[in-house]
Amino acid sequence: MEIWLDSLPRKVIAKCEKRLELLSEMGHFLRRPIAAYLQDGIYELRVRHQNVNYRMLYFFHGNQAVVVSHGFTKERLVPPREIEIAKQRKFEFERNPLRHTYSPLFPLNKGGQGVVVGRGI
After folding, report:
1. ω before 33 within 30° of 0 (cis)?
2. Are 113 and 27 in contact (CB under 8 A)?
3. pTM of the prediction?
4. SS3 string of the chain?
5. Is residue 73 predicted with pLDDT exceeding 70?
6. Are 121 and 89 in contact (CB under 8 A)?
7. Residues whose CB falls within 8 Å of the CB of residue 98, separated by 6 or more in sequence, listed in order
8. Which residue of 25, 51, 74, 87 is surrounded by the most CB atoms within 10 Å?
């Protein structure tokens, strides 16, 4: 996730970071047009810059954390392959959360929720 994020233009990185911060603050309450539920516990965080759609797929680990699976650029619908990658990473994370947890991107908010990047999943 961080490699993908670092490869983006600076303005896009700033927009993505703002979206991740908002996700950290609002968690399950974040809705369209910023976030959308896709399927099977997988959500997308949406960023648009200069007619390009950037997406970060994520899932919730209880009420304690949001786990960002990965990011990509899309044209129309989220490709099923990207959803399958996120679902597999969710499965791997749930089997062993400590093994697959990277440091939080944003610290825990008042509700005790933070955003983390899945590692090695």
Report:
1. yes
2. yes
3. 0.81
4. CHHHHHCCCHHHHHHHHHHHHHHHHHHHHCCCCCEEEEECCEEEEEEEECCEEEEEEEEEECCCEEEEEEEEEECCCCCHHHHHHHHHHHHHHHHCCCCCEEEEEECCCCCCCEEEEECCC
5. yes
6. yes
7. none
8. 87
